[in-house]
Amino acid sequence: MCTCIYLNSYGSYFGRNMDIHYSFNEQIIFINKGKEINLKNGNKLLINYSLLGIGTTINDYPLFSDVMNEKGLAIAGLNFLNNAYYFPYIEGKDNITPFELPLYLLGTCSTIEEVKEKLNNISLLNVPFSTKIPLAYLHFMVADLNKSIVIESTKDGLKVYDNDLNVLTNNPEFSYHKNNIYNYLNLSIEDPIHHKFNNISYGQGLIGLPGDYSSMSRFIKVYFVKENIVLNDDPVSQFFYSLDSVLMPLGLVKAKEEFEYTRYQSCYDLKNKKLYYKTYFDRNINCIRFDDFVDKDFQCLRLIKLK
User: Which of 2, 4, 109, 267 is catalytic?
Assistant: First the structure.
């Protein structure tokens, strides 16, 4: 389970909580433009824009969970189990696997409009990375310097939604989350006026704001927080405060025999090309810049030391 948000006040910021019950060898990954990637459809992908993000590598192959390119375009994949559907090879389509999609879009596009044009001919291919690594069932949020979209591949085909809410969590489909907002129009940062009772603590206007860790509740809560939180002269901290409102503590959500928790949080400054991140065991805000990888073609840095 994960939460992704986008803020475009005092800059453009995109990022997510990675809520998961296992380590996937999380790393900071940099890829310089000019690198070629072998695609499962048999073609080669030339990376036109440098990439900086978080994910893992297998045999030097980058698998991004969230990533930004040098033009300020970013993408994150979030769990979409039982709703995501991938297709066999379709003649005439750009058949791209879900794990290739971040590389394909950010390696060749610089804006949301260019992404939308690419998506017109994309079909997500049901081919796993390997026999030992099955496909992850995901939907995606993409943002540039001005706006965001949601990409969902279901049995009905590939759907692209303009995301004016600038939030994405997990199931159900994005259209449900967008309509569910209307059930919470009564929420207010202002306290209601009481004619008979005046000894009530502040915060009464927020009665009904969800506080559990389901994807439906996290969507509502983080949307309300990010829309109302005060963005001062430190928007990066304010971005993380928004994500912290739905941070999943270790010990409260059990997945099979393990606990899911927020292993890391990312914040991409799309304008200034910086990646900020925190981990569950290190609450300090760390910063990585494109400039830190000058003259590097491909480099990985370990993100989390497990405890």
Answer: 2
